[in-house]
Here is the input.
Amino acid sequence: MSTSSALVLACVGSLVLAVVLAVLGFRALAAARGVRRVQVPARLLSEAPSPGGEFVDVEYPAPDGRTLRARMHVFRVHAPGQPYVFDGTVWVDPARPTDVTPRRQGRTAGAVTTLVLAGVALVAALGTGIGAAVVRFAESLPS
Here is the structure.
C-alpha cells in the first residue's frame, strides 16, 4: 500500500469519525436544551474557587417541599445576560429534582466536548487529505 493510499484511508476515517461525533454532539446538545426546567431560590452553603469559576454547595426546595442539597460548578461567563457568579437561584428539572444546574440550559459540557472533538477530527481529515494529495503528486513525479 502506498503512502498516499494510507493517507487517503486516514482522511476518510477521520471524516467518518468527525461526522459521527458531530451527530452525537448535536443530539446531546438538543437533549440538554430540551429539558424543561424551573427556576427556584437557592441558599449558598459554601463555595470553593476552581479554574474558570467556583464550586458551590447549595440548598434548594424540591417540588414536594423537601430541602435538597447539590454541588455544582458555576462558570465565570463573560457574556451579555449571563451572571458572572452564583445569583441565588438554580434551575431544576421537576421530573428529576436532583438534576440541578446554575443555568436554564442544563448540562452541555459533554455535548460541547464531543463537538470540539468532532472539529479536531475534521481538521485531521483536512490535513490528511491535503497530505495525501501532496504525496500522490510527489509519487507521480519521475524519479
